[in-house]
Amino acid sequence: MRKAFVLVGLWGLAFVGLSAPKIQVDPELYDFGTAVDGDVVEFFVTITNTGNQVLRIDRVTYNCSCTSYELPKRELSPGESVSMKIRFNTRGYSHYVQPVSQSVTLYTNDPTRPQVVITVRGIVRTMSPYEAPATSLYQTLVLLLDVREPEEFQRVHLFGAVNVPLRELEAWADRLPKTHVIYIYDQTGEKSAQAVTLLQRKGFMLVRAIRGGLAGWWQELGDLFLVWGEGVSPSAPAGQPYTGTGFTVTPSQVARGYLVVVDVRRSEEFQNGHIAGALNAPLFTQSELANWSRTLPALRPGYALYLWIVDEDGTRACSIASYLRQNGYPEAKCLFGGLRAWIKQYGTELIWSGS
């Protein structure tokens, strides 16, 4: 009789094993690598019911207010999956022994795994003075457009400007951001006034013309931040500055916080996607960096050149920013985490392709 009860018991267990919900979580451990203190790490886990009965997630707990989650569905039919979003606020975690970790626990009706622990882990550190997050660049990014013809641009232009001839500007409207300041200039200020009017009619409320164009820039600031073409001797740009009325900014206002993004990846990587308005200067060796840095505009008291250096993951860019700070450019910064960090936070917003 005892053998019969044992057999029945084993059969019952086997039946439960064959007819029951079964939870699968992927991943159960998320390693975010390195984050800066204050970053919010976000990731997704996929929860799947691989059993043959309805899976219920009865309860979700976490051991810190720094952790939160979004779970749109708590009952899964056999074969069904749901995506769970988990956030970990790293503020203050750079002070702990590294790496740090936090967890979220799922309580389910899976008889074999009634509790599943999802762990987030990584290194949290403070930023160096030459490092800054994507939010900082996003909030300060300014575009500089030169609406003259290409041959005029090649002769002389403002450092970091993008050449978009006035005749092509309307076609560029879908590419330009309405969320960020755009400075426009030409030779004397007349074409840039037309460009501002054109863009404002299309809803660009943050667009401004640089008063007097390059002629006005020279009168006010000389050759500060001007880049001359090969074989061109620096001289006053031709024409009389046109001041116009309204929706303008003075050269000095622009020059006091002059921002340029420099993408140091290879040309093909740059063309596949880069931050709007960025220059491409592939820099891979110390000699390349030293030679390139000698071509940068000289600084002048009262004016600042904010160089943002960008690569894929921030590693090389941060070394370059550190070098620039030590060699006369105290406002040089790198995008911490590189273009990957930007895309993780903002997707393809303000990402251009092509040269």
Keywords:
single chain; 355 residues; alpha/beta; Immunoglobulin-like; Oxidized Rhodanese, domain 1; 2 domains; five-stranded mixed β-sheet; five-stranded parallel β-sheet; 11 helices; 23 strands; 31% strand; elongated; disordered N terminus
Q: What secondary-structure arrangement, pairings included, does this model have?
A:
Elements: H1 2-18, E1 23-26, E2 29-36, E3 40-49, E4 55-62, E5 67-70, E6 75-76, E7 81-89, E8 100-108, E9 115-125, E10 131-132, H2 134-140, E11 143-146, H3 150-155, E12 156-158, E13 162-163, H4 169-172, E14 182-185, H5 190-201, E15 207-210, H6 213-221, E16 226-228, E17 248-249, H7 251-255, E18 258-263, H8 267-272, E19 274-275, E20 279-280, H9 286-293, E21 305-310, H10 315-326, E22 333-335, H11 338-346, E23 351-352
Parallel strand pairs: 2-9, 10-22, 11-13, 11-14, 14-15, 15-17, 18-20, 18-21, 21-22
Antiparallel strand pairs: 1-3, 3-7, 4-6, 4-8, 5-7, 8-9, 12-16, 19-23
Structure described in brief:
It contains eleven helices and 23 strands. The protein is α/β, with parallel strands linked by helices.
Explained architecture:
- This protein has 355 residues and is an alpha/beta fold.
- The relative contact order is 0.11.
- Helices cover 27% and strands 31% of the residues.
- The strands form six sheets. The protein has a five-stranded mixed sheet with strand order 2-9-8-4-6, with no helix packed on it. It has a five-stranded parallel sheet with strand order 10-22-21-18-20. Strands 13-11-14-15-17 form a five-stranded parallel sheet.
- The protein is built from eleven helices and 23 strands.
- It has two domains: 21-125, Sandwich (Immunoglobulin-like), CATH 2.60.40; 131-352, Oxidized Rhodanese, domain 1 (3-Layer(aba) Sandwich), CATH 3.40.250.10.
